[in-house]
Amino acid sequence: MRRLLIAGNWKMNCGPYDAAELLEGLIEKKSEIDENVDVLVCPPFVSIGMAVKYLYDTDIQVGAQNLHFEENGAYTGEISGSMLAESGCNYVIVGHSERRQYFGETDKTVNKRVHKALEHKLAPIVCVGESLEQRKSDKHFGLVKNQITAALHEVSEKDILDVVIAYEPIWAIGTGETASPEQAQEMHEHIRSVLTELYDEDSAEQINILYGGSMKPGNANELLGQKDVDGGLIGGASLDAESFSEIITIAEDLA
């Protein structure tokens, strides 16, 4: 039975002081919630230490938003997997659509990051998804399959159980648009079938597939109620303790 995972991607928001305020609110709200759902926050690099400090005695985990695929060296501005692990991270987002769009990430570099994350016992949240143009031209299923296949190249049957997939309908990120519950389920089911092809049905059934397209309290119940939607990669709503906690509570009610 897959546990729902509610992950907050803070993106480029919340330095250490704002992070502390947000975390205090989240801890207060989270204390009223049961423990049937896994909860994760992914602050910017400069606020990871603050998050680890505040969340040390809670069951809320901490992740990062990216990592470099080299261990160390002359890569100004980059962060390695070993640095994240040493800082207290358990997860790391890999291949987010914004990284692909603005910073030149490719399927090949996503795959290298996945392997580096696994090497350091960080669970990679591998992001895949299509643009509006790709969906309208009926290329979305093939595109997502290719992204998954490339990202998981040479990932072992053992390591795949530590991987999380996040489906991002790019056309629904930051636009106020949201895939319908039926559209989300259709793609999540497709992703699970791709995982079954690459590995086996038993493994595919154990892997969390998150929805990452503008989930908020108003639509979380319908989205999380879908058979193959195993949680959410939450953007804007994760920056408000009350909204994020409300999504967690909805997930708890469905667990």
Describe the structure concisely for a colleague.
With 255 residues, this protein is an alpha/beta fold. It is built from eleven helices and eight strands.
Protein traits:
11 helices, TIM Barrel, alpha/beta, 8 strands, eight-stranded parallel sheet, 255 residues
Describe this structure as you would to a colleague.
The chain is of the alpha/beta class. It has a single domain, classed as TIM Barrel (Alpha-Beta Barrel), CATH 3.20.20.70. The protein is 44% helix and 14% strand. It is built from eleven helices and eight strands. The mean pLDDT is 94.
In CATH, the architecture is Alpha-Beta Barrel
Spell the H/E element sequence.
EHEHEHEHHEHHEHHEHEH
β-strand number? 8
* Low-confidence segments: none
CATH class membership: Alpha Beta
What fold name goes in the CATH topology slot?
TIM Barrel
Strand content: 5-15%
Structural class: alpha/beta
CATH superfamily: Aldolase class I
Q: Fraction of residues in helices?
A: 40-55%
Largest β sheet strand count, sense and barrel closure: 8 strands, parallel
Give the C-alpha Rg.
Answer: 17 Å
Q: In which order are the strands of the major sheet placed?
A: 7-6-5-4-3-2-1-8
How many DSSP H or I helices? 11
Shape: globular
Count of all domains: 1
Average pLDDT works out at 94
Distance between the termini: 10 Å
What is the topological layout?
Layout: E1 5-9, H1 16-30, E2 38-42, H2 48-55, E3 60-64, H3 81-87, E4 91-94, H4 97-103, H5 107-119, E5 123-128, H6 132-136, H7 140-151, E6 164-167, H8 181-198, H9 201-206, E7 209-211, H10 217-224, E8 231-234, H11 241-254
Helix pairs in contact: 1-2, 1-11, 7-8, 10-11
